[in-house]
Amino acid sequence: MSYRLSSKQLRGLTLCAILAAGQAAAQPASAPSSQAQCKGTIYLSFDTGSQSQAELIEQTLLRHHIKATFFLANEKTIHGDYSLDPGWQPLWKRLAEEGHAFGTHTFDHVYVVRDLPDGKIEVRPQFGAQAGSKQQWTPAQYCEEMTRVDKRFQELTGRKLDPLWRAPGGKLTPNLLKAGEACGYAHVAWAPAGFSGDELPSDKFPNDALLKKALNGLKDGDIFLAHMGIWSRKDPWAPAVLEPLISGLEQKGFCFATLREHPAYRHLFAGAKER
User: Fold this and answer.
1) CATH number at 40-269
2) Chain-wide mean pLDDT for the chain?
């Protein structure tokens, strides 16, 4: 049986089609539908810092539908407070709700100096009551320093950290690595091509050169490191480099994921409920 539509019905269908097309065009670009479409995956990671680029980083990741991994320490910020103070709660809570991953970077951004006898570690905190002074810590003391971040993060967001950590400066010793493992955290470094260079002086390492190096060097599976603001760099990295870096990698067919999906770490999350 066939039906013939009246002119009034045809006009109604045409109007519906136009409205539907307009609504579709108004929708934001969607994330890649499948990792199978990717030529490779890059794992963006950001350490805390001066926090001068924090909101810019968040908005750039949102615009590109990218999830990254953040390593948190309680560092002094451009606002005169510290990055894990209550004033930064809205940022951390939003990032958690947006699906990013989070690891510990030690609460007082504690650098390792050297290993000591009996498994102890000589360290030098950058912030906190012992800032700038060398301390002799046991593995249990270092573990407590790492878990301080987790406790604060739970207070700010209601969520636990992922079982990931990054030593300040990426510096490790055998005793320090054992201390982290005993505390339940897997250490995360970065690929040679994944060093953003945002800590380097901008007169010797300009942003355009750092961008070119990253675009030419990054490959499938690489972990990329940048900071949420660096005090010493006169020409900030993120405003100039982050957007073109992501766009350039997307044009090459790369996708992005958190370290929860990285082959070296995803076993830590097998069977875990979504955070």
Assistant:
1) 3.20.20.370
2) 89
